[in-house]
Inverse folding.
């Protein structure tokens, strides 16, 4: 029988099969599968698996089907990626107005991660009820020249939720964003039947409280499915070469071809078209600084690796 993994807790895997949730374990030999050994967990939410039904109604996972793509988190001090989900159609990066503070550097890292994986990324900025006009202007200004889909929503007023619902339709999306931005609140408001737990942001630190603790997939309507995640903070990009990074900054795009050097990292090289565009205001300076910031992380990593 073939099903989809929707949740993992310890050694147990929930497999969705014809509308039922079957609690399953892994056959021992799966743990030794070379293909799966690369990651911290052999199975991820979103995996398509073959399983056998045991007499007591539990399942035994026999095989994990080839993955179309994976969403991982990389730890600097580990040689194994942390596998978060598989076979996803879209990444929804969530941020918010108010608290916790808008973190566009975080969004930029995810945009790079998504482009690299070939998974479309949508930016959703929640708590629109708390936004000032200038906040929205700052956001649009930052991504100027980049045809990025930005949705503005509020789980309190319901604004923007029809649009978001449409964007989620018919595929598997994963919600990523730091704790407290309202990932779960948005899901609850769009699909009241879910009734998931949420908690207010701490007055003291302005941070969320990590209310969602598990990666879990929910089937909404028809083929529309969504994965809620705990507030993840760090995404390594260590598999990307420094020279390659510019490719994933979409508004650099075709202009990089006009740089005097090739490859150009748009940092120290003379006659750099990207730097010219930043000076002319065609590319946001803040966004360019975010690029340099990631670039220097990648360089440090390479230095350490080959030392
Ligand atoms: N004003 C306002 N508050 C919101 C909105 N959406 C969520 N909140 C509040 O923000 C807090 C955090 O919401 P959650 O949905 O728990 O956030 P989360 O992103 O799921 O956080 P984690 O599960 O910890 O990763 C709650 O107190 C919500 O009521 C919104 O649109 N406007
Ligand atoms: Mg949550
Ligand atoms: Zn350049």
């Amino acid at each position: 029988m073939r099903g989809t993994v929707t949740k993992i807790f310890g050694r147990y895997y929930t497999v969705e099969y014809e509308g039922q949730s079957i609690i399953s374990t892994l056959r021992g030999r799966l743990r030794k599968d070379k293909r799966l050994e690369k990651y911290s967990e052999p199975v991820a939410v979103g995996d398509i698996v073959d399983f056998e039904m045991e007499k007591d109604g539990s399942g035994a996972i026999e095989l994990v089907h080839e993955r179309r793509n994976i969403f991982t988190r990389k730890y600097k001090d580990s040689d194994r990626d942390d596998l978060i989900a598989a076979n996803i159609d879209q990444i929804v990066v969530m941020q918010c107005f108010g608290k916790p503070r808008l973190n566009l550097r975080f969004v930029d890292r995810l945009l790079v991660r998504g482009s690299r994986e070939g998974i479309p990324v949508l930016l959703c900025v929640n708590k629109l009820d708390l936004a000032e006009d200038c906040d929205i202007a700052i956001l649009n200004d930052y991504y100027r020249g980049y045809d990025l889909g930005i949705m503005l929503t509020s789980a309190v007023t319901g604004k923007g939720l029809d649009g978001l619902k449409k964007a989620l339709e018919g595929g598997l999306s994963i919600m990523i964003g730091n704790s407290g931005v309202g990932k779960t609140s948005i899901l609850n408001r769009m699909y009241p039947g879910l009734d998931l737990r949420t908690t207010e942001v701490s007055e003291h630190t302005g941070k969320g409280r990590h209310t969602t603790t598990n990666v879990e997939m929910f089937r909404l309507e028809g083929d529309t499915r969504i994965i809620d995640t705990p507030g993840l903070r760090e995404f390594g990009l260590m598999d990307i070469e420094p020279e390659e990074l510019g490719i994933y900054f979409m508004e650099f795009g075709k202009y990089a071809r006009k740089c005097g050097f090739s490859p150009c990292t748009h940092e120290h090289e003379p006659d750099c078209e990207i730097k010219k565009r930043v000076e002319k205001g065609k590319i946001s300076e803040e966004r360019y600084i975010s690029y340099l910031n990631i670039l220097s992380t990648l360089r440090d990593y390479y230095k350490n690796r080959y030392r």
User: Anything to note?
Assistant: The pocket of guanosine-5'-triphosphate (ligand 1) is lined by residues 126-127, 129-130, 154-156, 177, 179-185, 198-201, 208-212, 230-231 (CB under 6 Å). The helical segments are 34-37, 104-117, 133-142, 161-168, 183-190, 273-279, 285-305. The chain has seven helices and 13 strands. The chain has three domains: 2-67, 72-79+83-228, 242-305.
